[in-house]
Amino acid sequence: MDQLSSLPPTNATIGRWSVDRYINILRWPVIIGLAAALGLALLRLNQNWQMAAWVIVLISVSWQIKRQGGQNIEALTAGAVTGAALGLGSSVGQMIDSPTMLALANIVSDTALTAIAGALVTTAALITIRIFSR
């Protein structure tokens, strides 16, 4: 066991960026998005308001990716992480509001589906930002 702890840390990367860089870039958007999704779910606002908040957060993430010089793979990764946080916040808020077995199952499914949608929206927004910023 001592041999494993004495190994040098690996420089894990996703795309061209290290995991530490993703953490530095996504820390505040994920925290704000998670709190907003949880709050909107607890306030029982219309789903359209939640979707609008999600899109705003995901577009801001794609803008950050563009400013940092990221490409599509970085946008996919950042969007998936941010989308998972948004889905988790929303589904936990729904679970707190009305605790049922269906709401418990939605924690997993909403998180996964929102992560996929977040990756797609962030990448599409990054491509759009690049097109219109030329």
Task: Record the SSE blueprint.
Layout: H1 2-5, E1 13-14, E2 17-18, H2 19-42, H3 47-67, H4 72-97, H5 101-132
Antiparallel strand pairs: 1-2
Helix pairs in contact: 2-3, 2-4, 3-4, 3-5, 4-5
Please characterize this protein's 3D structure.
It is a single chain. Helix content is 80%, strand content 3%. It has 134 residues and is mainly α. It has one domain. The protein has a two-stranded antiparallel ribbon. Helix 3 packs antiparallel against helix 4, helix 3 crosses helix 5 and helix 4 runs antiparallel to helix 5. The chain is globular. The mean pLDDT is 86.
Query: Could you give a short account of the major beta sheet?
Result: 2 strands, antiparallel
Structural class designation: mainly alpha
Mean pLDDT comes to 86
Q: How many individual β-strands?
A: 2
Strand order of the largest sheet: 1-2
Sketch the topology as an H/E string, one letter per element.
Answer: HEEHHHH
SS field, number of helical segments: 5
The rough form would be described as globular
Radius of gyration over alpha carbons? 17 Å
Q: Oligomeric form of this entry?
A: single chain
What is the number of domains? 1
* DSSP helix fraction: over 70%
Low-confidence stretches: none
**Percent range for β-strand residues:** under 5%
- Kindly report how far apart the N and C termini lie: 54 Å
Characteristics of this structure?
2 strands; mainly alpha; 3% strand; 134 residues
